[in-house]
């Protein structure tokens, strides 16, 4: 059996279902889909697209940081956005948050997301061997 580490942080919302914020397997970090919910659980479904996109990305980055990573460690990001017309707006918020980091990315326009949200993002990162996950617990896969 391989070992993985469950990564958790109070800087992103707690999972509302049967999943974890992220799993670290070896040097590979798999970040679950992050919605535009503040770390304390306050939803942003009624806020602007840009506000929602920023919060979802910030949540993803908080989980990445909790694992000891930075934007430079991101290798793949997938974004689900309601309405293809929001693509340029998403790209603008995304570029501002990630700066010089340019991981592989897919943007998937969808007709709707859970609870009326407009954005969800997930990611994969490859961390340096000396970047131990903080606030993590060992678990078996």
3D architecture notes:
This protein is an alpha+beta fold and 141 residues long. The protein is 21% helix and 32% strand. It contains two helices and seven strands; from the N terminus they run βββαβαβββ. It has helices at 49-66, 87-98; strands at 3-7, 22-25, 28-34, 74-82, 104-110, 119-126, 136-140. A seven-stranded mixed β-sheet has the order 5-4-6-3-2-1-7, with helices on one face. Helix 1 (49-66) packs parallel to helix 2 (87-98). Residues 134-141 have low confidence and may be disordered.
Based on the model shown, name its key terms:
alpha+beta, seven-stranded mixed beta sheet, 32% strand, 2 helices, disordered C terminus, 141 residues
Concise account of the structure shown:
The chain has 141 residues and is an alpha+beta fold. It has helices at residues 49-66, 87-98, and strands at 3-7, 22-25, 28-34, 74-82, 104-110, 119-126, 136-140.
Poorly predicted runs: 134-141
Series of H and E elements: EEEHEHEEE
Note the beta-strand portion.
Answer: 25-35%
Q: Which percent range fits the helix content? A: 10-25%
Mean pLDDT reading: 91
Structural class: alpha+beta
Beta strands, count:
7
**So what's the overall shape?**
globular
Termini distance? 7 Å
Radius of gyration, in angstroms, nearest whole number: 15 Å
Biggest sheet, in brief? Answer: 7 strands, mixed
How are the strands of the largest sheet arranged? 5-4-6-3-2-1-7
Number of helices: 2
């Amino acid at each position: 059996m391989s070992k993985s580490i469950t990564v958790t942080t109070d800087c992103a919302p707690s999972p509302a279902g049967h999943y974890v914020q992220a799993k670290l397997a070896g040097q590979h970090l798999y970040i679950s889909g992050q919605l535009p919910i503040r770390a304390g659980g306050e939803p942003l479904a009624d806020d602007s697209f840009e506000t929602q996109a920023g919060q979802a990305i910030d949540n993803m980055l908080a989980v990445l940081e909790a694992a000891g990573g930075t934007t430079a460690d991101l290798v793949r990001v997938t974004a689900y956005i309601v309405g293809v017309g929001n693509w340029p707006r998403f790209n603008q918020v995304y570029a501002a948050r990630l700066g010089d980091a340019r991981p592989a990315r897919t943007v998937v326009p969808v007709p709707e997301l859970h609870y009326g949200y407009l954005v969800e993002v997930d990611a994969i990162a490859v961390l340096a061997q000396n970047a131990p996950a903080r606030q993590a617990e060992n678990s078996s896969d």
